[in-house]
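Re: that chain you flagged

S.,

Sorry for the slow reply, it's been a week of failed gels. I finally had a moment to sit down with the sequence you sent. For the record, here it is as I used it:
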Amino acid sequence: MQIAKSQPDTLQTLALDVGGMKCAGCVKAVERKLTQIPGVKSACVNLATEMATVECEADSIQPEILEQTLTEAGFPSQLRTTSGLSVKDLEATEERHREAAREQRQQLLIAIVLIILSTVGHLQMLGLPAIPGLSNIWFHFTLATMALLIPGRPILSDGWRGLTHNAPNMNTLVGLGVTTAYLASTVALFFPQLEWECFFEEPVMLLGFVLLGRALEKQARNRAAASLQALVGLQPKIVHLVTNPENLQSIDPKSIVDLPADRVRVGEFLQVRSGEKIPVDGEVMAGQTTVDESMLTGEPIPVLKQVGNEVATGTLNQSGTIVVRAKRMGKDTTLAQIVQLVQNAQTRKAPVQRFADTVAGYFTYGILSIAALTFLFWYSLGTHWFPDVLSVGTAFPNLGYVHGSFDRPSSPLLLSLKLAIDVLAIACPCALGLATPTAILVGTGIGAERGLLIRGGDVLENVHRLDTVVFDKTGTLTTGKPTVTKIWNAKSIDWLPLAASVEQNTNHPLGDSIVRYAKQHEIELFPVEASHTEPGFGVLGTANDRSILVGNLRWMEKHDISIDPSTHQQAESFVRDGNTIVYVAIDGEIVGLIAVRDELRPDAAETVKRLQKLGLHVKLLTGDRREVADSIAKQLGVGSEDVLAEVNPGEKARSIEQLQQQGRNVALVGDGINDAPALAQANLGISLQGATDVAVETAQIVLMRDRTDDILQAIRLSRATFNKIRQNLVWAFSYNSIAIPIAAGILLPSFGILLDPAVAAALMAMSSISVVTNSLLLRRQFRA
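Prediction finished late last night. Pasting the structure tokens below so you have them in one place:
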């Protein structure tokens, strides 16, 4: 099964791990840097996964140039390998996770220490006894200095680098805020004759809350990415290679060699013991066991595996020892393709994010401008128009009492600086940058756990707009394994072996059923020459020196085969019983009919009913005759006016287009090679796991469990995820729209509300955390 979409030969796609991104402004800066490199066609960056996907001309650019360009711009980058889930990949991934966990713990510890020391040193402001040493102004000066030089140094350097590279980011805002507060307080400390206030607690608390918020945000983002990390971790590192596979029923232990999984070659034999994960996609050659495939399909019931059955990488061997012959390795395995698809899905952006990205690209510039205007307004006009606001500044605890200035009005300069710092501290471009990717991260992760592979944020938006679901009948609403129910002879000749022979080379459920019927009755088949299949019509060929046509009525008419009344009458009788009719002609003459019935899936009718309850219009699309289609539709609860019957493959895409021209947003559920053009035409293509490769590649949602009721789950998950995206974006825009004016002092003259910069920093941190947490709430909606 091939899941990942291929790229055109002239283009190649590269993936990079990108560090140093703190907000949506960083995302835009990285994308801009990448697209400016000659040969790069497009770049898409995800803040939540810290990954960039670059589409460039094949062999026209050295990957090292991408890494170097971003690293020099302050975004340390490393190219991801494309060789699949190798041991090296797994070890590198695990090391990144361990390093990230160490950094989080360090940030969390530093943040807590800074906040505690600064808070304890100001307990006397609350009327509590002063703590010797910790309440001294020189202690707070030292604490603020150490805070800027040690934990604050990366923030300050990154913010300065972003500013000098014309790409200011969140660190630029934080750096300007803490530096301004520190310098103003330092001047007040060393020049007490100015009678300025000292507020060393503000840079300390601001840094503390920023670090605390980022540590908590990173933990939440890791939880959001846990599903993909779990998928990557399914690949075993060590395998048991059978070096002498001559007698697989009784293997000599000395012939088993343990080696790294990425050194196995296609065709080699591996022993998989009870409790171990299967390391390759392959075929069971010896033994019997049950395999837990829930990590790939979401299906909790173990599956019996015997000789000849297929097994997939990462699934768990539960009850017995088996020997597997490797068929697909590395990037070709189903697991690797699923991981690649999920990674691509988490990078692809929803169209609704374009506006957010546009705003984020100018956000930091806007905040810097607002902060500057805030300072200029209050210093030049505001404190003169509203002189009472100067006394409000002393309502908030600070270190002004050290110089005897605690009971005096605040300086216009310091008040203006505080308000400008508030603006820098409270603005949160991170929330804008995380709003969409975190929701997509969680949604696609939940989908992967449940066997619902959703290709990206744009797909989620398409699902949200759907109003019509069209089912291709065969293989989706029906089992896709029709059976021959009756044979009718128009001529007294043994024509069935010839009909089954020409069907051997077709890839159609009806043809498979005829061949299967012939084998069950031990009918000998003949070699076929000049075989040709016409999708949606039938097959022709030469066998045993006879010219044979097998197909539907239109196939016969196309070859000018006349149908006598008795044949018509018998065909109508079969159709009334719910059968599909296959006509057989030999040497230009009808010789018989084959009645084939494809039973409905057990959950098909309930699925259609529940889709209709969701407000979706359900239609049936089939190449079958109208009578057969109406019979199926009646069982499903679909009206005859919603049946599109006798539609050949070339017309399916046109049928979907006609519905779209009526203003409908259409999803097509299909599984065959004939459905690929229609799947591409539809607003949303949904394919079942058992589908042909081309159908899976064309579809935007792939259902791994091959169950129709998963269509409901996919639609529910997509709608819920898109709703989370909208909630996050509304919150991010609303927070910044309300918080920034308050921080700038809009409520100061009338209500005396003045935010402390430390409080502003805490609100900023909580804004980012709230967006990620809201995305994580998706899991509560989709608990198993």
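What I noticed first: The longest strand covers residues 589-597.

Talk soon,
D.
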